[in-house]
Amino acid sequence: MKFLVVDDSATMRRIVVNSLQRIGFTDTVEAADGQEALARFDASIQFVITDWNMPNMSGTDFTRALRTRPEGATVPVLMVTARSVKEDILTAMEAGVNNYIVKPFTPQVLKEKIDALLPAAAA
Q1: What angle do CA 57, 63, 67 make, to 5 degrees?
Q2: What phi, psi does 54 have (nearest 5°)?
Q3: What angle do CA 103, 20, 8 make, to 5 degrees?
């Protein structure tokens, strides 16, 4: 399974990629913001993990744009962000995010959220 990891923090991208590797997912592509993520996204991407707060294009704007593409309409999107208020979670879901993790997180929580979305990835 190929993941697209989107975060403006190189450190956070490394944490997510390392966590993915620890739970058995090694095929990853990275992007520093939503614009770069849209440019890097193609039909081989099977799962997206994105931050919310990024320059140029936020995670919610990226997700909205991704959902307009035929190849991005159904790919699972997991938002990993520091934003934790209920209104933010609702906004993310309205943008097309499938699930949400508040930072900091453990690899186990990441695995549980991914596992919960895998039937969506296989559909």
Answers
A1: 130
A2: -145, 155
A3: 50
The domains located in the chain, with CATH, are: 2-117 (3.40.50.2300)
Tokens of 20: 């993915």
One-character DSSP codes across 80-117: EES--SHHHHHHHHHHT--EEEESS--HHHHHHHHHHH
At residue 20, does pLDDT exceed 60?
A: yes
Strand partners, 31: 6
Residues in the chain: 123
- Whole-prediction pTM value? 0.93
Q: Which two tokens stand for residue 26?
A: 């090694």
